[in-house]
Amino acid sequence: MKSYILATLLTAAATVHGAPMPTPPGIPTAATAKTQLASLTVKSYVDDGNYNRDLFPHWITIEGACNAREYVLKRDGTGVVVNSACTATSGSWKSPFDGATWTAASDVDIDHMVPLKNAWVNGANAWTTAKRQQFANDISSPQLWAVTDDVNQAKGDKSPDAWKPPLTSFYCTYARSWVQVKYKWALSITSAEKTALTSMLNTC
Fold first, then answer.
1. What residue segments make up the domains of the chain, in order of their start?
2. Nearest to 143 by CA among 119, 171, 167, 123
3. Distance of alpha carbon 172 from alpha carbon 118, whole angstroms
4. Mind listing the pLDDT tens digit for each residue in 142-160?
5. H-run or E-run covering 69
6. Torsion sign (Cα): 147, 76, 174, 60
7. Which keywords belong to this entry (predicted)?
């Protein structure tokens, strides 16, 4: 019963202007996120210059004909219709980062909450390719989000001290999700990143 109530509250909290926002699994409460944040290793990131997106094999098959991108489009969209190849042919998507609604899947990117390069410079460079593949296609945590393509490109590989979602009302959910992914995958954070996340969690 408690889990049902929590899920209901999280859904309500993720609603902006009466339209439901996507809620990927595993978003912790603010209190849990603050505890997780306090436990993360804080250190300067090390960019060894060897990052390559191909080192994180992404959009692997998740179920049936659907790869991770198509899976998230179905999960986070409304009225999504797909063809036999699992390509979305219709539907609508509300981007939680900026509140925009799109009816063409081509206008939607699948964002890695913790960008692949950010993971690389904070510990993933020491992982196996298999582990990096799991990270890049993680549908069991709040790591993958369907968002406006231009907004995703503006974010790039930036951490919260350098980029925040246009919607300030999403700061709480964004920070809780970011912290959860870092915690789950035991990735380090920088001092500036921790300060920004603490400030965002204080909006909850």
1. 2-201
2. 119
3. 20
4. 999 999 999 999 999 999 9
5. helix 68-76
6. negative
7. Signal
